[in-house]
Amino acid sequence: MISLGIYEKALPNNLSWRDTFELVKKLKFNFLEFSIDESDEKLARLEWTRDERASFRNDMWETGIRINTMMLSGHRRFPLGSQDKNIRNKSLEMMQKAIDLAIDLGIRNIQMAGYDVFYEDKSVNSRELYVENLAKCVNMAEEKGVMLSIETMDDPFINSLTEIAHYKTQVRSPWLQSYPDLGNLTAWPENDVAKELENNIANIAAVHLKDTLPVTSTSKGKFKNVSFGEGTVDFEGCLRTLKRLGYSGGLTIEMWCGSEENAIEQVMKAKLFFDQLFNTIGIVQEPVNDV
């Protein structure tokens, strides 16, 4: 049995939290994935007051919808490997606040974007700074009992589970795991997706469901807004592999249609796509709480 979630940015962005959670339940998802991206609006969530956090928790509790994962993509703007010490300090401060927020909201897993830097030039030094600060982040998480999971990215720095496994040899901790994005894994031609899953199943804490178009000699690929079934991800093969390997964690449908008028329709279409695959493969979704 698996739990199926939906990324916050897939849902209409003009709803209250209560209405958002009610919609998640109505659409038959088990959980919502929470976003702390690089925008000022989302970063401000790290400063929520005690009352704001309590109100959010109450909405979750009363609707019966939980949040399994926090997507902490704010490190794109404030990367761990930046040449600027002030930015690196900001990245560490952001992580500590994200961990504290996760504890208050009942979130057990924080997804880290696998970038050393995003808007700066990469170098051996940016890589080293990333590893040094990754270790600091993991120490913070260990102290509070929160999982950190590095996502396979749309960037060559960490684009495979093999790469994440290597960094786990540099920062050894049970609180540092991997968060494969099936779309990102598939888009990089050097990845044998099935072997990536097989060789690293013990480190997988969560999985993103997203379709992509591949990186080629003439294309940078397309990593966002590819409709399910129109990209090159072999979802049936990947899900069969995960089932055989005994994976029973969360699967999150990742979409960014929340600002579009037909957002709910798009999400329903995506849910049907995976419902049909689950039925074909024999994957059972956790029943949706009817609280």
| Morphology call | globular
What's the Cα radius of gyration? 18 Å
Mean pLDDT: 97
Supply the helix-strand structural class.
alpha/beta
**Strand order within the widest sheet?**
6-5-4-3-2-1-10-7
CATH third-tier fold name: TIM Barrel
CATH secondary-structure class: Alpha Beta
Strand content: 15-25%
Query: Considering the protein shown, what is the CATH homologous superfamily?
Result: Divalent-metal-dependent TIM barrel enzymes
Protein name: L-ribulose-5-phosphate 3-epimerase
GO molecular function, one term: L-ribulose-5-phosphate 3-epimerase activity
Organism: Paucilactobacillus oligofermentans DSM 15707 = LMG 22743
InterPro entries: L-Ru-5P_3-Epase, Sugar_Epim/Isomerase, Xyl_isomerase-like_sf, Xyl_isomerase-like_TIM-brl
